[in-house]
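On clarity, I found the account of how folds are encoded harder to follow than it need be. Since the whole study asks how a given chain folds, the encoding of that fold should be made plain. For illustration, here is how one protein appears when written out as sequence plus structure tokens:

:::
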Amino acid sequence: ITRDRLDELNQLVGAKIETVEIKREIKKKMVAEAEMAEERASTLAVAKSKPTVPAGIAELFLPNNQTLSQALKRAGLEGVTPSETVLMYRPALLAQAMVRYLDRKNNIDESRTVSVLVEEADRQGIIRWEDWESPAVDRSSIDSSPISESQFSELEPPFTDGKLVKSMAKDFLDFVYHAAGLTVLKNEALKLVAKPDMNRPDFLKQCSEVARERRDEELDKLQTKYEKKIDAIEDKIAREERELAEDEAELSGRKMEELATHAENVFGLFTGSRSSRRVSSSLTKRRMTSKAKADVAESMEEIEELRTELIEMTDELKTEMAEIEERWSEIANQIVESTLTAYKKDIREDLFGLAWTPYWRVKIDAQEHMLPGYTSSE
């Protein structure tokens, strides 16, 4: 045997082993399901004809919308051919209500359907409705009569008691009233409420846009207020700078006058023509020069104080603007969930009654299986 031929044989053996393992797993699954089906079938009472339903209980025939091949595939029995096949109807409880959520203040007018399909109803009519919630059933999909040559399982409580079923209908509507609230997103600070079909990212985007608009409005008002103050300070600085220029000019003139007077006194001292009048004039010039110096110093000090005030006010404006930015950013993210409860008058029974549900009753290797012949649309 060549090496290539040996590899081919090994691959073939491996493929056969893999196929055997897969078939073995399928067989295990079939046996497990068959045992469950056999247990259910052994306790299932089959009626010779459709059982009579007590007065007051509505009968509904759910559609046989899942073919035998589809049912086998979903059960992991694809490719298996049953030795016997029959369509059987089993009783279930279908309850469906239309709920209107109305909130005129927030412009919400939403309708929702609450639906349950109870496949194993309690004999005393005690139902945990939330455990059986299912997709809504379209009225137009419900059959008006059963498929011919089909079988029916016997009726058992609670479907044999019309009064009990009627009380269950009231209990279902009470469940809807207390449990079927409509959850919406809200932002109390912005006074915004999301539409029922709006997700959180889209609502956050809406809140951010509104918050940005209101932030800009507040920033505009703040800047307008500070602009008036800043303009007033800048006007004072300009006025003080003009006064400083005048004071500096006067100081320069006073210095020239004082210098001239001082020169005249020195000249008189050397010529012997000193007089008390010239001395008095010199003192007066000295006082005027000192006053001019004081005026210049005062103007410079006032300008420095005004410039410091301007810097502080500008910093104050920046701080307040940053606080406004941060506050509106936080407000945009203040999203909470709120539950809107419907009024009892806005809850209406849509469907309620015994729902004959189709199953494929098949026999495979002498064992019975009950495979769903109806599937709810997702």
Remarks:
- The first helix runs from residue 3 to 42.
- The mean pLDDT is 82.
- The beta strands are 46-47, 59-61, 84-103, 108-118, 151-153, 182-187, 192-193, 336-340, 347-364, 367-372.
- The helical segments are 3-42, 68-74, 162-179, 200-271, 276-332.
